[in-house]
Amino acid sequence: MAMKALPLPTSPDGDVTDAVLTVTDLSVEFQTEHGRVRVLDGVDLQVPSGKTLGLVGESGSGKTVTSLAIMGLLDRRVGRISSGSIQFEGQDLAALDARQLRRIQGAKISMIFQEARRSLDPVFTIGDQIAESVRIHEGLSRREAWKRAIEMLQLVQIPDAERRAREYPHTFSGGMCQRVMLASALASRPSLLIADEPTTALDVTVQAQMLRLLRTLQEEMGLAILFITHDLGVVSEMCDRVAVMYAGQIVEEGDATQVFGHPRHPYTEGLIQSLPESAVARGRLAAIPGSVPPAHAWPQGCHFADRCRYAVDACRSGPIPLLSRDGSATRCIRADELSLAGVR
Ligand SMILES: Nc1ncnc2c1ncn2[C@@H]1O[C@H](COP(=O)(O)OP(=O)(O)OP(=O)(O)O)[C@@H](O)[C@H]1O
Ligand SMILES: [Mg+2]
To answer: Is residue 332 included in any domain, yes or no?
Structure first.
């Protein structure tokens, strides 16, 4: 399905800011017991360079599949990109072969995720693991790579980096493992970092430190971040722009403050109302009844219609496009007539 591309974010004086990553009409299909099922359905995303785009949505909406498709890490035995393009620094990643992709992934685009400890090999020292990844991507000598590893550990504020580089992962706490994974991800100086729920497993204090560190490094390195999370609080703290995902589609996109203050899609309103501090949640009403249907059962029209209190017949009559206006976009045909409640 062809869809209108989102407008580029504009700066206050109206200049178009450049995007480091532009995903257009991306669809991904999986081979499942229900046959071939489309789990991403025409996803449009733009990550402005040096800025953070938050990608939010309930479990099963397709956030991780989106990041895997961008990284070229979909399991090709079951999943494939069936349409769309992924423009990154002048190349369409969706059209590259595995060998070409490997050169970009991990070097110019890096990823961190929830299970930091699992990303580390228990039989190698921390320093060796970081050094090995820069040796692969940049062809540095053993000595130079080790030096870079120490620098990276210092950059992510691991105390006593030279000594700790010679230690094994089991001596590191969960929060420290996250820092090591970040050090490794940033060692090749990527221009885009994809962070998939990087702080979800951490306790609140450690999470706050990690987010602060990410923001500092972003400024120092001019890094663009695609930040995937369930947590709207984290998004409003971390993100310049936000894309809200529901059942394989982006349903709303815009400036983070604007989207949370004045949502233009009923699903976004529901997410805001399910925040613990919202009046609806305090009254223990379900802000969004039901759950995300499985991909093989998504309806023809608006994917959200069956859970939407504002749905009318027209919402179910056929595919709803993502309509953009003034630097933001919504996939709700009633957006202009509804006045949806934002964060107060
Ligand atoms: N290998 C696979 N085979 C078939 N279906 C898959 C596969 N991986 C993911 N899916 C389906 O794709 C959809 C999106 O899953 P995804 O993991 O991207 O969700 P998510 O938004 O990251 O959720 P969460 O918040 O729980 O991490 C789900 O319906 C899931 O069942
Ligand atoms: Mg996920």
So the answer is: no
| CA-based end-to-end distance of the chain | 37
Q: From the CB of 279, is ligand 1 less than 6 Å away?
A: no
Given a contact cutoff of 8 angstroms between Cβ atoms, the answer to whether 196 and 114 are in contact is: yes
Tell which one of 26, 29, 30, 298 to mutate to probe ligand 1, the residue whose CB is within 8 A of the most ligand atoms: 30
Q: What is the pLDDT of residues 247-266, one digit of tens each?
A: 999 999 999 999 999 999 99
Q: Examine residue 45 and state whether it is found in any structural domain, yes or no.
A: no
Report which of 9, 79, 30, 3 is spatially closest to residue 243, judged by C-alpha positions: 9
**pLDDT for the residue 12:** 47
Say how many domains are in the chain. Answer: 1
Provide the pLDDT for residue 82: 95
Q: Which ligand is nearest to the CA of 58?
A: 1
Distance 232 CA to ligand 2 centre (A): 15
Residue 196 is given by DSSP the state E
Q: Kindly report the protein residue whose alpha carbon is nearest to atom 18 of ligand 1.
A: 62
pTM, 2 dp: 0.91
Structural domain containing residue 120: 116-189
Domain contains 52: no
The residues of the chain scoring below 50 in pLDDT are 1-5, 9, 11-16
Compute the distance from residue 191 Cα to the ligand 1 centre, in Å: 26
